[in-house]
Amino acid sequence: MSVNWFSVEIRNAQGKRTYFNSFVTDLEITPETMAKLAGCGRTRWKIENETFNVLKINGYNLEHNFGHGSQTLASVLVVLNLLTFAFHTVAMFAVLAWRNAKLARGTRCRFFEHLRTITAYVVFLNWEQLLGSIADTAIRPP
User: Where are the domains of the chain?
Assistant: First the structure.
């Protein structure tokens, strides 16, 4: 299989390199397409990097090498982690009580801290009551 390779380097006014990356593509690279391919490659890298940072930092603890081993358990755990992320993303858009509770606590990580802490001490009758108590500043047990 033939592939094409190119690299992108950005320097500031002082000549210091501020960005460098290289890309492999099966598309033809010409002087006319170089800028567009570099923009697409950089955008793809940015999307992948930011998505992975969300999974790594915002309460999911998914490391870059998690699930890359030959053990089945690691693969199962990474799939469960990705399903959890998908479920939480859908809940953020579809469940008003979830969205209000999440917005009241700020970051996703802080929201999960509140969710974990409050359920350790209080038993709630339903999700609405639980999420409502996280959204409010005062906790009202059932």
Answer: 1-57, 63-92, 95-142
